[in-house]
Amino acid sequence: MVKINRNIAIGHLACAAAYVIFGINVVVCRDIATDGGDGGVEPIVLFAMRALVAGGLFWLVSLLMPRERVPWKDLLRLAGAGILGLLMPQLTFLHAIAHTTPVDLSVMSTTTPIFTMFVAAIFLKEPITWKKALGVALSFGGILWLILQSSFGGSGATETEPVGIAYCFANYIVFALYLGTCRNLIARYSVVTSMKWMFLVSFVIAVPFALPHLPATDFAAVPGYVWWEIAFMIIFSTFIAYWLVPVGQKRIRPTLVSMYGYLQPIIAIAVAIGTGMDRLTVTKMVAAALVFAGVWVVNRSRAAGAK
After folding, report:
1. Tell me: the pLDDT tens digits for 258-281?
2. High-pLDDT (> 90) share of the chain, %
3. pLDDT tens, position by position, 205-215
4. Does residue 78 sit within a domain?
5. Sign of the dihedral defined by the CA atoms of residues 69, 70, 72, 73, in that order
């Protein structure tokens, strides 16, 4: 009989649930970006709303839990973690989804383990083998194919634009840095303690940039169903999912956490096609095949090196 480590199993379940939510969130955020009223709601304003509500919920929950003392040194580190793990990833994602289709963004999101590999090579001194280099070349060949097709055939709101791909790259790089450099810090404290400080710092930084956009934001023009989508984004994709990720982060390795990113494109593509928001084309399938092949080669190389 196979003995299951309960602690590790909880980590896997937490990551799986979080990335299912993130997959649905891709489609939800695309809808918010395209149907959010005249001019939409600026990404920095959306982020400030997320940080305010989700951070407030974490602080409320913390009142019901034993207080954890956090020294100033770790508060500064949690501030950095908030920037790398919350502020920058969420802002780049919101900008990216406004300029990419859900399928394209989801295909590109599978390269997160590759960026995590580079972070591990820099900070953990993991060697980059020729197999890993080949996998990287294949994956980026697929993304280059998407870029070239978008450059010659993009149509703005309905197709992926190169600027959207650039934001995607920025998103994956900063989140990989977060996964690769903040694990030990996150493991020292409860999820609530780390998240309440990370969200507080992120909100304080975001407010000065969000305030100038508030007068120009016509909240009355935002359709009712978009407000429900914003509620999903704040409660599920921010409060619940960002509670679950540190639970997994404390129990399983960073590379395994990033591997659960494969659930996100599967869910996002299924929902996007099912709702008629996007479609599969030969170009997207060729790009997806190259990207997945590259990631598979990288992961095979990592598995072989672990033996």
Report:
1. 667 667 777 887 888 787 777 767
2. 19
3. 999 999 998 88
4. yes
5. positive
Query: pLDDT higher for 92 or 169?
Result: 92
Residue 91 belongs to a domain:
yes
Number of separate domains in the chain = 1
In a domain, 240, yes or no: yes
Rg (CA), the chain: 19
Report whether 51 contacts 203 (CB < 8 A): yes
What range defines the domain where residue 231 resides? 7-125+160-278
Going by C-alpha positions, the residue among 6, 5, 11 that lies closest to residue 253 is 11
What's residue 60's pLDDT? 94
Given a cut of 70, whether residue 224 has pLDDT beyond it is yes
Average pLDDT over residues 40-45: 81
Residues 216-242 as b or e (16 or more Cβ within 10 Å = b): ebeeeebeeebeebbebbbebbbbebb
Q: How confident is the model at residue 55 (pLDDT cuts 50, 70, 90)?
A: very high
State the SS3 of the chain: CCCCCHHHHHHHHHHHHHHHHHHHHHHHHHHHHHHCCCCCCCHHHHHHHHHHHHHHHHHHHHCCCCCCCCCHHHHHHHHHHHHHHHHHHHHHHHHHHCCCCHHHHHHHHCCHHHHHHHHHHHHCCCCCCHHHHHHHHHHHHHHHHHHHHHHHHCCHHHCCCHHHHHHHHHHHHHHHHHHHHCHHHHHCCCHHHHHHHHHHHHHHHHHHHHHHHCCCCCHHHCCHHHHHHHHHHHHHHHHHHHHHHHHHHCCCCHHHHHHHHHHHHHHHHHHHHHCCCCCCCHHHHHHHHHHHHHHHHHHHHHHHHHC
Classify residue 291: in a domain, yes or no. Answer: no
